[in-house]
Amino acid sequence: MARILITSALPYINGVKHLGNLVGSQLPSDVFARYRRARGDEVLFICATDEHGTPAELAAAAAGEPVADYCARLWQVQKDLADGFRLSFDHFGRSSSPENHRLTQHFAGRLADAGLIAEVMEKQVYSPADGRFLPDRYITGTCPNCGYPRARGDQCENCTKQLDPTDLIEPRSAISGSTDLEVRETKHLYLRQSLMRDDLRRWIGTKTDWPVLSTSIALKWLDDGDGLQDRGITRDLDWGIPVRRGSEDWPGMEGKVFYVWFDAPIEYIGATAEWAHARGLGEEGWQRWWRADLGAADVRYLEFMGKDNVPFHTLSFPATILGANQDGREDWKLVDYIKSFNYLNYEGGKFSTSEGRGVFMDQALAILPADYWRWWLMSNVPEGSDSNFTWESFQSGVNKDLADVLGNFVSRVTKFAAARLGATVPAGTYGPAEEAVVEELSRRLAAFEAAMDAIELRKASQELRAIWVAGNEYLQAAAPWTAIKTDPERAAAIVRFSLNLIRLYAVLSQPFVPDASAAMLDALGVSEAHWPTDVAAALDALPTGAAFSVPEVLFAKVDDARREGFEAQFAGGKA
Ligand SMILES: [Zn+2]
Question: In 10 A of CB 334, how many CB atoms?
Fold first, then answer.
């Protein structure tokens, strides 16, 4: 039994994510995790919210809540949506957890011991009225480039010019509005990533099996311009993980926290520790997944993410891991495979939170079942290039793939069988038609598994659809409704084979449409069904005489009026 560790990129805490976010990491990682579990592997599937940084602080302030309360509330919102989409995380953690505090401080200490941390004096804007430094978005003023009066310390919204807080004309605090600002010196820690370039290049060079999207982005960042730069890992903020050198104080760094980009990927490990502690598994419980020297040597670790996250996961986080491993006293696991995705657009443009353009996760679940979204998103997953959500395409996917093919097959078979032969699995001997389907499905199953094993999920959904189509074509040709008039035994054999096909479809479709899969098995009275090793045996699995029921409509079609309503509802431009 293989051991597979799967992480999904961590959604940021400040609000509900849209379908493009969902399809870029959480959903495909879930489909793969479900598949590996079905194949009998020992799988650990981890995700968490990414909770630190100024956007969380400002969103909390805008909501009039303490930031810790705000994050706790939004974590629950995101957790409920993940459950609604049937994302089967073994643990959905929080980057603000005590486990991540300890691990982040531990890694910082290990990196300092390895000579990979520099202490740097910097000039930052300080507000005496607020009693604090004002990094990034905490300061606003007039843009020196275009004269826009509400430019932020990191960027002008109007002309998009990247800014430093000290560039702004007539700067003021975004918190109090105070213009009594001064520039003070403050000390920060830098991760000396530039010293790790050769190690990183050597490591990425071994990843010949990665998608080109992953390696090309990594090499571009490694070598662009002056190459990989050292990067600040601390901030003058209150909300975050206090800077400590392992379990020791860090002289001169009192009152500072680690910068969110440093602690967020460490939360993959932190969330695994949260999972182990919640189950009473102790330190060994998570270390056997993350420490090659403590039992994780046989773990295969896969990360799923959108392409914007690739630089951090191919360079910064590996630099942290490689640095911590440098003296050989600890052996933390590096990622084995990075599956990255392009972007999903909405009706030819971008999703927009501020304009209400596109479908967000809460809205999606409010209007249609999770399976519909899961199926369309996976059969259009942006693997080779960006893909485009349109309501026409969505309507077509739901109606033609789910309702007309899979749903229709289940409905026709169970209704006919129950009405004409009674609601139990009949006896019947298979003939050449069934043998031909077994042969075709054996071939198609191998292709489906090959695509899943390679995490080519769009191709895998096409193979799965072809498997559904084969059943429909068989049923249409075998025509039990005709056979029953002249040859009831033949009709019984067709029905028995078709009921077994429903069982097989439920097993194979479970990673993609888990609710429909459960409904199919439930209708067949099957409590447990394993991944087929032999198609002929799988299509002979239901015992003769076993009761079944006709399930509710698995997939309702989306009609044109409804589609047009959705198009108008999510077009954006709302106040
Ligand atoms: Zn400007």
Answer: 14
Q: d(Cα 285, Cα 414) in Å, to the nearest integer?
A: 46
Mean pLDDT throughout 288-294?
Answer: 98
Distance, CA 165 to ligand 1 centroid (Å)?
13
Going from the Cα of 160 to the center of ligand 1, the distance in angstroms, rounded, reads: 6
Please list the alpha-helical segments (H only) found in 326-431: 361-367, 370-379, 391-396, 408-421
How many whole angstroms from 166 Cα to the centroid of ligand 1? 14
The mean pLDDT value for 136-164 works out to: 88
CA of 67 to the centre of ligand 1 (A): 30
**41: burial class by Cβ within 10 Å (0-12, 13-18, 19+)?**
middle
Residue the block writes with tokens 């067949």: 524
CA of 61 relative to ligand 1 center, distance in Å? 25
pLDDT higher than 50, residue 75:
yes
What whole-number percentage of the chain has pLDDT above 90?
87
Over residues 44-53, the pLDDT tens digits come to 999 999 999 9
| Cα 170 to ligand 1 centroid, rounded to whole Å | 14
**Helix locations, 155-259, DSSP H:** 197-205, 212-223
Q: Who contacts 246 (Cβ-Cβ below 8 Å, separation ≥6)?
A: 105, 106, 108, 109, 110
| Ligand 1 center from residue 139 Cα (angstroms) | 14
Q: How far does residue 171's CA lie from ligand 1's centre (Å)? A: 14
Quote the ligand 1 centre to 150 CA distance (angstroms): 9
For ion ligand 1, residues whose CB falls within 5 Å: 143, 145-146, 148, 156, 158-159
What distance in Å separates the CA atoms of residue 404 and residue 386, rounded to the nearest whole number? 27
Q: 389 exposed, middle or buried (CB, 10 Å; 0-12, 13-18, 19+)?
A: buried
d(CA 446, CA 440): 10
Residues 6+ apart with CB under 8 A from 393: 376, 380
Cα 514 to ligand 1 centre (Å): 49
> Is the pLDDT reported for residue 575 higher than 70?
no
Does the pTM of the predicted model rise above 0.90? yes
How many A from CA of 125 to the centre of ligand 1? Answer: 20
DSSP string, 287-307: HHHHBGGGTTTTEEEEEEEEG
- Tell me, in angstroms, the distance from the centre of ligand 1 to residue 158's CA: 5
Determine the pLDDT at residue 574.
56
Report CA(55)–ligand 1 centroid distance (Å): 20
Burial 412-424 (b: 16+ CB within 10 A, else e): bbbebbeeebeeb
Query: Are 86 and 510 within 8 A, CB to CB?
Result: no
